[in-house]
Amino acid sequence: MRTSHLLRNFILSLPLLISSNSFAQEPVRIAFMDPLTGAFASIGNSGLKQLEFAADYLYNSKGGILGGRMIEIVPLDNKQSPTESQIQFRRAVSEGIQYIFQGNGSAVANALNDAINRHNRRNPGQEVMQVNYSAVDPVLTEDNCSFWHFRWDAHANMKLDILTDYIADNEDINSVYIIGQDYSFGQVVSDTSIELLRQKRPDIEIAGNEFHPIGQVKDFTPYVTKIVASGADAVITGNYGADMVSLARSIIDNGLNIPIYTFYAAYDGITATLGADGKNRIRLIHNETSNPIPTEERKEFIRAFKAANPNNDVTQPRITNALMMIVQAMEETQSTDPYDIGLALEDMRFTTIGGDEVWMRGEDHQVFQSLHISVHTDEGIEFDADNSGFGLYTEYSVPLEATVVPVNNCRMRRPRR
Amino acid sequence: MLEVFIFATLNGLVTGLLLFMLASGLTLIFSMMGVLNFAHASFYMLGAYFAYSISLYFGFWSGLIFAPIIVGVLGALVERYGLRRVHQQGHVAELVFTFGLAFLIEEAVQFFWGADTKNYQSPDLLDFPLFTLFGQEFPAYRGFMIGISVAIFIGLYYVLTKSRIGIIIQAAITHPHTVSNLGHNVPLIFMGVFGVGSALAGVAGVIAGPVLTTFPGMAVVLGSIVFVIVVIGGLGSLAGAFIASILIGLLQSYAIASNLGMPDLLNLLGLEFGRDHPLTDLWTLTLPQIAPILPFLLLVLVLIFRPTGLMGKREQ
User: B256 touching A, CB under 8 A?
Assistant: First the structure.
C-alpha cells in the first residue's frame, strides 16, 4: 500500500518536475536508429558512440547550439529489421523527435524512407528528416529519392566506379572473381562491377560471379577452392560483418595470395582478426582518409574519442559530417524545422574537420566528397583499428569533382509551404 | 576439375567431422533424457570463447585442454541444478528451458566479450601448409581438425561399446529403473553424460573458433544444422549421426563446388527465358546459391520417406 502511494505521488508530481526543468532551454533531440542488439550490434553501438561523442565534444561541451540548447541523442534499437524500424519510428514520432540517423542496411533505409514520406505527407508541420549516413543502395537517391532523405555516404555505384578504375589501372589483374551476399546490395555490387569492368577493361575476364545466403555460411573454404580453381587474380566483395571476416580468413588460410577489394573489411574486430596475414592484400573504398590524417583538428578529435572510448574507433567520420552540416543549417536558419534545414542543406558546401570539401547535391540529396582506396597494413599507421597496430593506409585518392555522377531517375516531390 | 573435387571432398570431411562432434553429444543426451537440447550449440560457442580467453594468456594448447573441461563442468551444473528440476514438469518444460538457456548464453557472451569478432588464431605450430596440390594449399590446421575429430569418434565409440561405463550408460538409456536397482546412481550418469556431451561441443568450439571466426552469432549459424543432422541420422543413434554429418558436410561442399543450376537444366530441356521473365530469379538459380539450404531440403525428404531417420529405431 505504502509503495503504491509513493508511486502515485511520484507520477502526479512528474508534470511539475518536467515543467520546472523547462526553464532551462529544451534540448534538440536526435534519434539514432540502428541495431544495438543481435548479430550486427557491434556496428550499431560503434556508430552510436561516435554520434554521442561528436555531439558532446563539438557542441554540448561548448555551450550547445542555437544559443544554449543541448543536443540529446536518443538511441533506438531497430535490430536491423524493417518491421522493428517502423515501431521505433512511431516511438520517435510520439516523442516529437524530428531527426533520425540511420545507416545499417539498405532494406531498413528503404522501409524508413517509405514510413517517413507517409508520415510527413499526413502531418504537415511535424515532419521528420532521415539522416542516412551509410545505407548505399543507389535507389535511395535515384528512383526513391525524397526531399526528407539526405545521404552522407557515396552510394554503391559511385564507389564501384572508383574501385573498377583502380582495378583497370592494375596491369597485373586479368581476371576477377566476384562473390557477395545474396540480396539487393550484393546483386548491385556484382552487376555494376561486371558492367563497369566490361567498359573499362574488356580484356578482364569475370572468372566467377557467386552469391551466398547472407549470414548463413559457416566456412568459406569451399568457395575459396573455386576461386583458386578459376585462376582469378583478384576478388571483389561487398560482404560485411561475419561474412567478411570468414571470407577473408578462408582466403588467407588457404594460401590464396591475391588482392581482395572490399567495402567494409575494417574495424569492429575485423582488422584485429585479419592481422598480419591480411597485410597489403585487403583494400577498401571509403570517404575520409584514415592514415595519414590531413588535419590536426581531426587528429585531436580522434584522440579525444579514443580517450573516451578506448575499445572503439572513429570508423565513420561521415556521422560527424552529417551532424555538423545539420547544426550549421540550424544556426544559419535559427530553426530546427526539418523543412528549413532541408532547404539549407541543399547544395551546401562544407569543409569537414578532416579538411575535406563536401557538397550535398540539391537535386537528389546525394553527398559528394573525395573518395579513397586504402590498404590494410601496419606501416605508416598513426591511428590503428581495434588497437591492433594495423589500420588503413590510403593509397589512391579521387577528388570530389571526379566522383560526381549525373542525377539518375530522381523526380523529387518538394513539399509546398 | 579433379582439384576442385579433391578439395571439395577434404572440405566436406572437415565440416562433416566438426558437425559430428556437436551432433554426437546432442544425440547422446537425447537418447538418455528424451529431450532435444536447444542450448547445445551455445556450449560450442562457449568453448570457442573460453579457449580464446585462455589462449590470450597461456596459448592455444592450454585452451584446447581447459576450455572443454570448463564447458563440461558448466554443462553438468546446468543438468544438476536446472534440467533435473525442470524435468519434473515434463518434456515441454525441459525444451523451453534449454531454448531459454540458448538466448541467455548468447546474451552473456555479448555482455562479457562484446559483440565484435574476436581475434582467435590457430597456433603458430600448425601454421604451415600440410601439402600443396594443383597450386592450392591444404592448411595443417585442417588436418589437425580431422585428426582430433576422428580420435574423438574412435574414443567415444570404444568407451560406449567396450568399456564398463559404456555398458552402464547404454543400459541406463533403455532400462533406467533396472540399472538403478542394481545399485548404480542413474542421475549421476545422466549428469556425466550431459557434461561430456557439452564438453564435446566445447572441443568443437575450441578447434572451430579460429577457422569459422569467433563471434556471438556462431551458435545460431551452426545450431540449426546440428538438429538437422541428429534427425536425419535417427534420433539417439551415434552411427547415424556420424553418417549424416559426413553426408551433409560433403553435400554442401560439392554443391558449392559445382557450377550447375537451373540454366543448365533449361538448356538440357531446350528451353529459354528472357531476363525480364517474372520468374527470372527461379530460372537463374544455381546450386552453389542454395547450398546452405540443401540440408534442410534433405531433412524434409527424410522426414517424409523415412521418419525414423537413417539409423533410428522406431519409437514405441
Answer: yes
